[in-house]
Write a structure and sequence with these properties.
The protein has 204 residues and is α/β, with parallel strands linked by helices. The chain contains 6 helices and 9 strands. The strands form 2 sheets. Strands 5-4-1-6-8-7-9 form a 7-stranded mixed beta sheet, sandwiched between helices. A two-stranded antiparallel sheet has the order 2-3.
Length: 204
């Protein structure tokens, strides 16, 4: 399966929030969104995965903007992922979307991840379907959420700057879905080089 920008998939009619506003301190300040994997920047893998969604909101610097994608920024910049989620949720105000993807910008297999989670409806009594990796870790920035649930979480925490995602989402009912490796994120050079090497071996 092609998990790059050319992947075509059927995704629900939802919004999409893409977070790309971190300092990339573990990448020596190089913006994760711009790192190329499979010949294209990481964020393009994510944009391709959600291109059928409306609206698409990206949280980060102006440079991540693309046609049809609204860019907003957490206040202050680099306020952390919870603050970025809050900024993204505010940008969805007035949207008709009942659900939204919430994705980090460094998911090289975003196409496969979205295709996998799109098959799983959010169960009654749950607020989201969220990928869980092989070690049992919930990947909060690799899921599909009820917009009302995200709005409620943000409303309960008026000050999100510096807040952990665990704290922001502590009241949400998350339905876990085995990611089968599709939620791998690349936030260190070691992870990037290991992923590139694995991909190269797969194509030999």
């Amino acid at each position: 399966m092609n998990d790059g920008a050319g992947l075509v998939m059927n995704v629900p009619a939802t919004a999409a929030l893409v977070l790309a506003g971190g300092r990339s301190s573990r990448l020596d300040g190089v913006a994760k969104a711009t790192v190329e994997v499979d010949g294209i920047p990481l964020i393009e893998h994510v944009y391709a995965a959600v291109r059928a969604c409306t609206p698409i909101v990206a949280v980060g610097p102006d440079e991540i903007g693309r046609p049809g994608i609204r860019v907003v920024r957490e206040d202050p910049p680099f306020g952390g992922p919870a603050a970025a989620v809050a900024a993204g949720v505010m940008a969805l105000d007035g949207s008709d979307a009942a659900e939204t993807w919430l994705l980090a910008c460094d998911l090289p297999r975003a196409g496969e991840l979205v295709a996998r989670l799109a098959k799983v409806p959010i169960p009654a009594g749950s607020d989201a379907v969220v990928a869980v990796d092989a070690d049992g870790r919930m990947q909060w920035l690799a899921g599909r959420y009820r917009v009302s649930a995200l709005s409620g979480a943000v409303a309960q925490h008026p000050e999100t700057v510096g807040m952990s995602m665990r704290k922001l989402f502590e009241g949400l009912r998350l339905h876990p879905v085995d990611d089968d490796g599709t939620a791998v994120d690349l936030d260190t050079w070691a992870a990037i080089e290991d992923y590139r090497s694995t991909r190269k071996d797969d194509h030999v």
